[in-house]
Amino acid sequence: MSELRKSNTDLPYFITLTVVDWIDIFTRQAYCDKIVESLSFCVKNKGLIVFEYVIMPSHIHMIAQSLDGNLNFILRDFKSFTAKKIIKEIEENYQYEGRSKWLLHMFEFNAKYYRQNSKYMFWQKTNYPIELNSAHIQYQKTEYIRNNPVEAGLVTDGEFWQYSSANPTSPLRTSRM
Question: Which segments constitute the Transposase IS200-like domain (predicted)?
Answer without folding.
Answer: 8-124
